[in-house]
Design brief:
It is a single chain. This protein is an alpha+beta fold. It has 3 domains: about 70 residues, no CATH class; about 70 residues, no CATH class; about 35 residues. It contains 3 helices and 11 strands. Strand 7 and strand 8 form a beta hairpin.
């Protein structure tokens, strides 16, 4: 069995979202998450999973009466989807919007020729942890959106969930408890040795 070839992502490639993992990136039973080849190729995939047992396609989701072929809460669209309008677009159609910097949880969009009050939509799934330049973002059809204050702007979308902060607090508490337990154990052994 040949091990998969692991390459570094092409950082110069433009990020784009596909509905499914392209055939060229699919391999035989890989020993890595199924979406890793797409991430390395700077692609987002709407129908993705890291472990088949956790997949919501088409399994349980397809049995729900409101299922329309897209899982609940998915706002991102692949470029082969008829409703795909780009990775960043202006809802009213005035002007242009394009991504100038992309990283998971941090996307910068340059807007030109829009009108104040127009709505910018980012082709990423909505979550309340998203903010736009320090303000709250809002959900447009389960994608991330922002209301523009100026027609020519650099808009920075950022993701920061409060769960992340809670995780850091729990981590710090765990480390503190382990250090305290180690010190207590050391003192106990020292008292045994001295007696």
């Amino acid at each position: 069995m040949n091990a998969p070839v692991v390459t570094t992502p092409d950082q110069s490639a433009t990020f784009v979202t596909e509905t499914k993992l392209p055939g060229a990136l699919q391999g035989p039973e890989l020993s890595m998450p199924a979406t890793l080849p797409a991430e390395r190729a700077n692609l987002g995939t709407v129908e993705c999973n890291t472990f088949p047992g956790l997949s919501n396609f088409p399994g349980l989701a397809a049995t729900l009466p409101e299922y329309d072929g897209r899982p609940s809460g998915i706002g991102a669209r692949g470029r082969d989807d008829g409703e795909y309008k780009g990775e960043a677009f202006l809802l009213e159609g005035h002007g242009l919007a394009h991504i100038v910097a992309w990283a998971p949880g941090a996307v910068t969009v340059q807007v030109e020729g829009a009108r104040p009050g127009d709505h910018l939509v980012l082709n990423q799934n909505w979550d309340p942890g998203w903010s736009v330049g320090g303000a709250d973002a809002w959900s447009y059809r389960n994608a991330i959106a922002a209301t523009l204050k100026d027609g020519h702007a650099t808009v920075r979308f950022h993701y920061g969930s409060w769960w992340s902060w809670l995780g850091l607090v729990v981590l710090a508490g765990t480390v503190w408890a382990l250090v305290a337990a180690r010190r207590a154990r050391g003192r106990r052994w020292a008292s045994v040795l001295m007696s």
